[in-house]
Amino acid sequence: MSKPAAANTGVGTFFSASESREERWRELHRAAKALAAGGSQADKARQDAAALLGQLAPLEELCAYPGPRLMAQVNERLKAGDGAGLVRLTQRISISLLSNSYRDDAEAWKAEDEEDDPHMPKILPPSIGRGQARKPYCEVLIVSPGERSTWGPMRDGMRKLRRETDEFVVEPVIVGSFEDAVLAVLVNYNMQAVVMFDGFGYASQTPLADLRELIAAYLPQAAAARDGDLAMLLSRAARSIRPELDVYLSTDRDVAKLAGADEAAGIRRVFFALEEMLELHLALLEGIKDRYETPYFDNLKKYAQRPIGTFHALPVARGKSIFKSNWIRDMGEFYGANLFLAESSATTGGLDSLLEPTGNIKLAQDKVARAFGGDRAFLGTNGTSTSNKIIHMAVCRPGDIVLIDRDCHKSHHYGLVLAGAQPYYIDAFPLTQYSMYGSLAIKPIKDALLALKAEGKLDKVRMLVLTNCTFDGHVANVERTMLECLAIKPDLIFLWDEAWFGFARFSPFLRRRTAMGAAAKLRAMFKDPEYKKRFQESKGALPDPDKVRLRVYESDSVHKSMSSLRQGSIIVVADQDFHTVEASFKEAFFTHTSTSPNLQIIASLDVARRQMELEGYELVQRAIQLAIEMRREINQHPLISKYFKAATPAEMIPAEYRKSGFSDYGEPGWNLTKLIGALDSDEFFLDPTRITVLCGNAGFDGSQFKALLSSEYDIQINKTSRNSVLVQININNTRSDLAHLIKALADMSRAIDKRLAEGGEPAQAAFKARVKSLVDDVPDLPNFSRFHDAFRDNPKSKTAEGHMREAFYLAYDAAALEYVKLNSKDVDERVKNGPEMVSAKFVIPYPPGFPIMVPGQVITQETITFMRKLDVKEIHGYNASLGLELLSPKALAALKKEERSATKKEKER
Question: pTM higher than 0.90, yes or no?
Answer without folding.
Answer: yes
